[in-house]
Structures
1.
Amino acid sequence: EAGVAQSPRYKIIEKRQSVAFWCNPISGHATLYWYQQILGQGPKLLIQFQNNGVVDDSQLPKDRFSAERLKGVDSTLKIQPAKLEDSAVYLCASRERGFDTEAFFGQGTRLTVV
Amino acid sequence: AQSVTQLGSHVSVSEGALVLLRCNYSSSVPPYLFWYVQYPNQGLQLLLKYTSAATLVKGINGFEAEFKKSETSFHLTKPSAHMSDAAEYFCACSGAGGTSYGKLTFGQGTILTVHP
């Protein structure tokens, strides 16, 4: 079974630039999550999708972050414009269903904003 | 709202010693609880999960955890540490109803160091 694929693995941008991350979840997984993991901290949920609908985006900074999951499969997370404090690892995870199954994680995208 | 607290951001043990990583949760509905491990530059990998079938849960690599509702705890243990156990460990809580449905909330993590 193929895992969760994320790209790129690393990205360095200047502040005020824009950046996009891509995630391809495990086939058939209805739930998709984007997390932000700042060095030394636990993953912080940014947005949760169920199929192509948003379930929870309460911690997504909507003035600069956006995410979509077209056709309930792949997902893209965008930051525009980036700030220094956005430097983090962005993790994508998918789950077969909502609450009791294992969430599978991609390797993450390490973003450095300079 | 649900939350997870991991006591101790760093734990250091000798090889062969007992490993104990502490996790307490707060949830308004019966939670599902998970322990994940993260190696450097890797994503998170599931160690074990509690989904109400049994309070003592066995996972991979010799780890186990016990769900104690009265203490709202889900501590992770391993009888004998191995050098390869050195990593960061995260406790997570998943809601089964209401506004927490499917929401997977993580603690702040505990870095385990194993000394020879």
2.
Amino acid sequence: DIQMTQSPSTLSAFVGDRVTITCRASQSIGTWLAWYQQKPGKAPKLLIYTASNLETGVPSRFSGSGSGTEFTLTINRLQPDDLATYYCQQGNGFPWTFGQGTKVEIK
Amino acid sequence: EVQLVESGGGLVQPGGSLSLSCSASGITFNNYWMHWVRQIPGKGLVWVSRIQSDGSSTNYADSVEGRFTISRDNTRNTLYLQMNSLRAEDTAVYYCARGQWGAFDMWGQGTVVTVSS
């Protein structure tokens, strides 16, 4: 199975900051990488697919990059509504696997 | 309205069975792969199973292979998950999700499955 490792596990930042979350795959997955935002008690929401494509309706302050084994999710101008846990997920081969999550807190 | 709505969750004893359903509306259901994903409360997301758009191909996580069966009825726009020989470690929120571009682009609200005596 392809292992997905996210870092950090938790991050705390101020409103308006730029934050970056990293996701590493245990083997190359091309650009078959997605990012999700999950708020407490809610289903995950797709933010980015195929590494860098912004899902319709997602604010442009979210962006994704990377290929192969290393990927990043960047949130520009962090907003209070961005308080959530973020997950990466590979869709290159079954079983599709997720990172362990990064909890974003607002200072 | 475009949505996925799961049902069928509940409390079941270890070794028991449960059948989940996911009703789709507002989408061309038979165009898409469909998946089940689960999440233990407070923990991460785990992919469980996937079925091809026409139902001809399925995949399962090792942890459920041989115990769970995914199926779909494209005439009813409904996805199913038959869960047998349930274990305590199957306790989770179960989400159905639409697959596209190697991602889950649409999710249901989830249904809670609790396996306990």
